[in-house]
Amino acid sequence: MKNKKRLRVVGILAIAWVSPLLCLAQTAHGTSGFEVASIKPSDPGSGAMQIGVAPGGVFTAKNVTVKALIGQAFEVRDFQISGGPGWLDSERYDIVAKGNGMSASEDELRAMTSEQRLAFKQQLVLKLQSLLADRFQLKVHRETRELTSYDLVIAKNGQKLQPPKDEGINPGLTVRRGDTGQTEVTGRRTSVDSLTRILSNQVGRTVTDKTGLKGDYDFKMSFTPDVGLQGNGDSTTDGPSIFTALQEQLGLRLDSRRGPVEMLVIDSATKASEN
Question: Taken in order 118, 23, 143, 202, is the CA torsion positive or negative?
């Protein structure tokens, strides 16, 4: 069966990597960047993509495309990124970046509240954006277009998310393709806002959290990916769609609407020199 590899989700506050966090906001570069950054082409056999922050504030990316980094840096999904050279979505890099004020122990990362994680990731935002601008000469602008999007709301019979079972574990949100071909989404101490970002990737549209649910939750959902939405090959398994799974397994629902969606247009980018 195709694509059985576990895919560690890159996530804005959805944490599934080495240790929590990642997100970005548009900002000036310069002194906000990392002190040291190593960038080199990935080994073709290096496996699944990983992005994360290790204890001590070391940012690592393995087997990652520049387009994936751009998505993280500007809080946009693939379908919101337009333009740019083809290599942004094909060539993969390993990146290790250190320093300039980013530091947190493993215990500190584990103990963070949702608000503290948000503040921590905003620091990282400045640095990753600076890295893209300085090392890949990335230049972008934003546009607004009318597209179909979704609101995430609580279903008729109520939500089924569970309070965290263990406050001592690291927050995490993972997406993997199981042996049956179904996609499995598992959250530990994860916010609904983080879930919306995963849903957005799966349905290929902007998803806005309208549930009103605050705090962190544990949850697990399995569904059959819609190849019409994702364009990633033929489905070989039966099972609920993401829309059905959301209602039956998590007690949530996606309501469609049409409205303005922010797009990120890539004006120019160059390949980083290896170091």
Answer: negative
